[in-house]
Amino acid sequence: MFLHNIGIIPGGTKNSAPASGERVITNLSRRGFVVGSSLFVVGVALAGCSSYEEPKIDPNAIELPEAGPSPLTEVKGGDATPALWIAIEESGTVKITCHRSEMGQQVWTSMAQIVADELEAAWDKVEIVQAEGHERYGDQNTDGSRSVRYNFHRLRIAGAAMKQMLVEAAAVYWKMKPSECSAAQGLVSNSQNSDTLSYGNLAKLAARLQVPEETDVTLKDPKDWRYINKEIPSLTIPRITRGEGTFGIDVDRPGMVHAVVARPPQLFGKTGAVRDADTLAIPGVVQTVKLPDPSAPALFQPLGGVAVVATDTWAAIQGRNALEVNWIDGPNASYDSETFAEQMKQTARRSGMVRRKRGNVASDLASATQKIEAEYYAPHLSQSPMEPPAATAEWDGEKLECWACVQDPQATRQTLSDLLKIDKENITVHATWLGGAFGRKSKPDFVVEAALIAKEVGKPVKVTWTREDEVRHGFYHSVSAQRLEAGLDANGKCTSYLHRTVFPPIASTFVPGMDVPTDGEMGLGATDVPFAMPNLQVESGNAKGHVRIGWLRSVSNIYHAFAVQSFAAEMAHAAGKDQKDYLLELIGDARKIDPNAEGATYPNYDASLEEYPIETARLTNVVNKVSDMAKWGRKMPAGHGLGIAVHRSFLSYIATIVEVAVTPEGTLTIPGVWLAVDSGTVINPRHTRAQMEGGTIYGLSNALFGEITAKNGAIVQENFPSWRVLRMEEAPWAFEVEIIKSNSAPAGVGEPATPPAAPALANAIFNATGHRIRTLPIIGANGSRLTLPTKATAQAEE
Amino acid sequence: MTTTLNINGKTETVDAAPGTPLLWVLRDHLKMTGTKFGCGVAQCGACTVHVDGSPTRSCITAHDTLGDVEITTIEGVTGNAADAIREVWVKNDVPQCGYCQSGQIMAATALLAENPSPSDADIDVAMSGNICRCATYMSIRRAIKEAAG
Ligand code: FES
Ligand code: FES
After folding, report:
1. Among A2, A69, B48, B50, which has the highest number of CB atoms less than 10 A from its own CB?
2. What are residue A429's DSSP bridge partners?
3. Which of A241, A436, A728 is facing B133, going by the closest CB pair?
4. A459-492: per-residue pLDDT in tens?
5. What's B27's DSSP letter?
6. Is residue A3 in some structural domain?
7. CB neighbours of residue A398 within 10 Å
């Protein structure tokens, strides 16, 4: 009956220690037994008063009114009931439930920082429990760079409410007023004497108290924060350095067998005749399982094919190599990236659907002193987290239990329920650690594979995706073609701007035939363009999806920022002005921008424009900051160039300057990157810097090397040699990050560093060589484009 | 077929098919999952272990051809270089997701054991076989230099 108050962790995962908070509750539910107050002592010796021994509280010896239900179930962000998030054990260990997936963004640490700060928990007592997938936690979809933004307020409330209940419990015990008691670092003290009570000792008594109303919960003044906005070390990293911790691919269950799947090379290709005699002859192979052919829309369905089940992963892979399958062509058999690129470029040359409009672009363009235009193309990309998708499923005839590296355990549970026709109550999904994700692991198709095979095999099954599987059967970042036009007046000032963007929408994965870019994608760097010219038009053109299109770190912002910020530099060049000065001129005066007022339907990352406006002053500020850091305007050595880009995404403002050096032979290196970020209140500056470096280099990797292409409907690339990613020797030589001090509401940090990377790089290459990059990747997998023109040859080219 | 291997100073007997790479023997047979799978084709370094102290791609190393060698994995790597690397890794929060980091630590430890004061170029050469998709490269470089003193 007190389950809602304190101390229970309903969702402890199997791969972390069981939440012994549940034991606290078991005892509590027996309240009413009056136990003689045998006050034995626990040994808490305080510095300076070593004679003091804390009395052991017997919570059942104290009469208390019956507590009502928690009034904190619907605060901003969701349920802030302390018991949902925090369990304090008798030992004083504070177990904090993290409902978001840990994938390297250090969400365990940041969630713990928020709760523990308001709770006044001692940091060395804090442990994290990973929540299973369940609606009671609210949104668990760990994408969109919003774990902190969505949960900051309610987790502060949960921590602060629990601290107040602990203080009140101490007051009850001491027969004082709560105002005479205060909490710090896991201990409650009082103003009358030097006695203290520890959280572990108070927890059971506190659990019987009424959870306060939100209006009665006092949050700390930010100046009193101990953990928030501090460089608190990661809670996961010490274990990582010892090879501990369980990723999805590491899960082991008693009696488990291993599976890999041979999938049709094309989306919606079908599995024809299967010859598995050679497969079954491989030592260790147990059986093969034919999976159902999916039909459109793709959703999160598996792709079909044949699973090979074996006693170890290697045998399964060998078995798959020996498998002969007659794949039957499907509706996407003619998909060819080269042909499709031409079609998209053609579409971008025709008028599209108007998505935002200011003034009259057509008439202004017609009368402009100077008109410039440019077309940009960016290919499909694969997320390629270092840990490929992997999932383990166990089916007992009634209940299904899964362990997997999923970004969204709730969507996983729902998808399993829908596709396997199992009641959701009978499905448990445990999120393991994720070895990177970048959007790939928000799609739980691989967990469904494991479940389907487990049902067939009757044993726990782990499905491992090889790298080839991950590269060839993904949910790809959308391919795109864009066209930009601008009119400049006699002074080189931009008076009109047209941006037309063409790409297969992510919605094509979910709605059959859907080929119209959505408002959400258009709002990722197209309709939210912050430029001030009097005439502006943003249009979209339609394109069909022929592979599964999905989210990849910062999504459409990647190609939109590449085109828009490259074009800003092209305009500057046409106007004969400095790139940075011209960028600031395009952004214009300090103001708030509302794309909706100009005909857009702008989701603003699901935040209100009141709470998270588009503020041009913050863009200008990061541009100026990063220019100071990089000493913009300095004299560059021969072959070197600086390039700048600024972009707001996930409600954060980031400006990036890249320096490149290009040798006369055309070999490119990156001597430096400078980045200024304004993402409002930052929970952990150290981990924010890591995301800035990582997000930028992820963007540089894509821009330099990343290219997924299709031929006859099948993906051409296979593994890291043909799907090339950036290595240490190609990384920048130096990287400086500056975090703007801000008390604004927290914004995203996991994704927004990626979009400005590619245009800053392309603009730097232009300044170093005079060569304008309009097609990505710049170098490509086999280095065929490695030889960039040097400044001299590029100028001759012009 | 049973094979006897010396792993982290212990004798382990495994029964895996001939030719099975050490990676899968470690992970699936011995349940030592600290060594990771990233590509299976010697491209990413996630599977790096030490064989007689040398960094080795366990994904392409058949377990039954190793013979009488000392195999060391992330779970068992010790010594001055390993201690120094772990210390700077933790102190600077080098990893992000951590998945590539067993391999990074094994590569960095081998580098430092061999070359106590590596140059930037030495570091790049030794570490460029290890892909990190979280792109912790800057942190790794800084940390190795710090460990080298
Ligand atoms: S898994 Fe061995 S090098 Fe990639
Ligand atoms: S830390 Fe995530 S792949 Fe390297």
Report:
1. B48
2. A402
3. A436
4. 999 999 999 999 999 999 999 999 999 999 999 9
5. I
6. no
7. 8
Q: Hey, what are B35's tokens?
A: 């060594």
Size of interface A-B (CB pairs under 8 A): 186
Ligand 2 pocket by Cβ (under 6 Å): A 104, 386, 436; B 95-101, 132-134, 136
From first CA to last CA, the distance across chain A in angstroms is 78
Q: How many domains does chain A have?
A: 3
Q: Which atom of ligand 1 is nearest to the CA of B45?
A: 3
CB-based contact A204:A191 (threshold 8 Å): no
Q: Name the region of A348 (left: φ>0; alpha: ψ -120 to 50; beta: rest).
A: alpha
**A470 at B interface, C-beta within 8 A:** no
- Please give the Cα distance from A696 to B77 (Å, whole number): 32
On whether residue A126 sits in a domain, the answer given is: yes
Residues 74-113 of B with CB under 8 A from A: 74-75, 86, 89-91, 93-102, 105
Judged by its nearest atom, the ligand closest to the C-alpha of residue B27 is 1
By residue range, what is the domain housing residue A516?
337-381+475-797
pLDDT tens column, A726-769: 999 999 999 999 999 999 999 999 999 999 999 999 999 999 99
CA torsion, ordered B68, B69, B72, B76, to nearest 10 deg: 50
**What is residue A518's predicted lDDT score, i.e. its pLDDT?**
98
Strand ranges, E, within A207-333: 257-262, 270-275, 285-291, 305-310, 324-328
Q: Is B128 part of the contact surface with chain A (CB cutoff 8 Å)?
A: yes
Burial (0-12, 13-18, 19+ Cβ within 10 Å), A724: buried
User: How much of chain B, in percent, has pLDDT values that exceed 70?
Assistant: 100
Cα gap A528→A179, rounded to integer Å: 49
Say how far apart CA B97 and CA A795 lie, in whole Å: 44
According to DSSP, residue A293 is labeled: P
What is the C-alpha separation between A499 and A485, in angstroms, rounded?
7
Chain B residues near residue A721 by CB distance under 8 angstroms: 41, 43
Nearest by CB to residue A466, choosing from B20, B40, B95, is: B40
Q: Within A245-309, where are the H helices?
A: 277-280
- A696 and A778 both lie in a single domain: yes
In a domain, A10, yes or no: no
Domains and CATH numbers, chain B: 2-72 (3.10.20.30), 80-148 (1.10.150.120)
- Enumerate the H helices of chain B as residue ranges: 22-24, 80-91, 101-114, 120-127, 137-148
Tokens of A614: 């588009």
pTM: predicted TM-score of the whole model, two decimal places: 0.94
Q: What CATH code is carried by the domain that includes residue A434? A: 3.30.365.10
Classify the C-alpha dihedral B131-B134-B135-B140 as positive or negative. negative
Q: Which residue has the tokens 């694969």?
A: A382
Report ipTM for this prediction. Answer: 0.99
Instruction: Nearest chain B residue to A108 by CA: give it.
Output: B97
Give nearest CA residue, ligand 2 atom 4. B132
Which residues, other chains included, contact A277 with Cβ-Cβ below 8 Å and sequence gap of 6+? none
A593, A727: one domain: yes
Q: Decide if A280 is inside a domain.
A: yes
Instruction: State CA A208 to chain mean position distance.
Output: 38
- A674, A700: one domain: yes
- Asked if A409 and A101 touch (Cβ cutoff 8 Å), the reply is yes
pLDDT band (50, 70, 90) for residue A246: very high
Which residues in B lie closer than 8 A to residue A105 (C-beta atoms)? 96
Does residue A610 share a domain with residue A556?
yes
Which residues make Cβ contacts (< 8 Å) with residue A449, sequence separation at least 6?
A259, A261, A291, A302, A307, A391, A463
